[in-house]
Amino acid sequence: MLRYYTAGESHGEALMAFLSGVPAGLGIHQAFIDRELWRRQQGFGRGGRMRIERDSAHIISGVRHGKTIGSPIAMLLENKDWKNWQESLPVAAGDQEKHKAVASPRPGHADLAGALKYNFPEARYVLERASARESTGRVALGAIAKLFLHELGIEVLSHVIAVGRARLENTEIEWQRIAKVSLKDEVVLNCADADAEQRMKAEVDQALRTGDSVGGVFEVVAHNVPPGLGTYAQWDERLDGLLAMAVMSLQAVKAVEIGTGVGSAFSFGSTVHDEIGYAGGAFTGFSRASNHAGGIEGGVSNGQDILVRGYLKPISTLRRPLASVDFATRELVKAAYERSDVCVVPAAGVAAEAMVALTLARCALEKFGGDSMLETLRNFEGYKQQLKNF
């Protein structure tokens, strides 16, 4: 079983990420992990924090001489901003006068719900862990999952299909175009269509001018996934359910769609089910005329690209704050404001890539097993031969 979790706070000394269950012998490339972290920090509409942090993963355990050794992997990601917060958020008692309270909860954030749950008098500690800064650790872990999937020929990337009211007219984007966008050294909004990207940029510009924020939709594409990952045998082992939970767990994601699931609900079955042919598919002789199912049928991957869309609400920290209530006085005030982004849809897509990669890596290891990459790949090759012989 592939297991992972993160620790750390937004303005704490560091974030930490832990991953166990990776077979021994997987090549780990520091430059690839750091580029994934860089991709998460990019995009038009990011805030001042991105000018402070230059994220890099410091691997502490589980990797020696450039390869995994089968033991748990631990990574540390330093927060450069810690120097500005160490007196405000000390581990020891410290000086309470230097504490920076979040005195009024922000609508749409975890502030109020978290303060009520943990009985905090204000929301500083809620903000510190609920912040999307936590997703940095997930992206680092996802990079290792991507390296594992790459050995199986599986690739995972994302692209933006909507920001605010601006969206792609034709969302069926070829894999090659998505891959090309991911190689850019300058990221605007990670959209594969230049004209649509400019319309999206105009939406962010408007939010910037008005002190607002804007959300959107990203799509994660898993390419060259073999049929047979996941199962219909138990409700909590279905691949679509696992992916939906993984992507939904990301900060500000409020809805998840597999394939054209939303549109399919308003259509006749004859127009949304992917007709089956026999013209030489990637893994078997079976082929499909379309991919409305998003590569998953009955909770099992079917050999087509897996398509997962995340619907991201606008960031809840606004430069023109909404109405709120003061924690101490219960008087009506404006919500607290902290340095924040205006649009994070491209970054959320990168974080979702990590969650999809981790989920697919887990399902692949459950199916193919292996304590070493040699064993895993041997089992995988045997399964591919089984598919060819079907």
Describe the structure.
- The chain has helices spanning about 30-40, 50, 110-120, 125-130, 135-150, 175-180, 195-210, 240-250, 260-265, 270, 345-370, 375-390, and strands at about 5-10, 15-20, 60, 65, 65-70, 75-80, 155-165, 165, 215-225, 255-260, 275-280, 285-290, 295, 300, 305-310, 325, 330-335.
- With about 400 residues, it is α+β, with helices and mostly antiparallel strands.
- The chain has a single domain, classed as Chorismate synthase, AroC fold, CATH 3.60.150.
- The longest helix has 24 residues, at about 345-370.
- The two termini are about 30 Å apart.
- The mean pLDDT is about 95.
SSE arrangement:
Elements: E1 3-8, E2 14-20, H1 30-40, H2 49-52, E3 58-61, E4 63-64, E5 67-68, E6 73-78, H3 111-118, H4 124-130, H5 135-151, E7 155-163, E8 166-167, H6 175-182, H7 194-210, E9 216-223, H8 239-248, E10 253-258, H9 261-264, H10 269-272, E11 276-278, E12 286-288, E13 296-297, E14 300-301, E15 306-312, E16 323-325, E17 332-334, H11 345-368, H12 373-389
Antiparallel strand pairs: 1-2, 2-6, 3-6, 4-5, 7-8, 7-9, 9-15, 10-15, 11-12, 13-14, 16-17
Helix pairs in contact: 1-5, 5-11, 8-11
Descriptive key words:
Chorismate synthase, AroC fold, 19% strand, 17 strands, alpha+beta, five-stranded antiparallel beta sheet, 390 residues, four-stranded antiparallel beta sheet
Describe the structure concisely for a colleague.
By secondary structure, the protein is of the alpha+beta class. It has helices spanning 30-40, 49-52, 111-118, 124-130, 135-151, 175-182, 194-210, 239-248, 261-264, 269-272, 345-368, 373-389; strands spanning 3-8, 14-20, 58-61, 63-64, 67-68, 73-78, 155-163, 166-167, 216-223, 253-258, 276-278, 286-288, 296-297, 300-301, 306-312, 323-325, 332-334. It contains 12 helices and 17 strands.
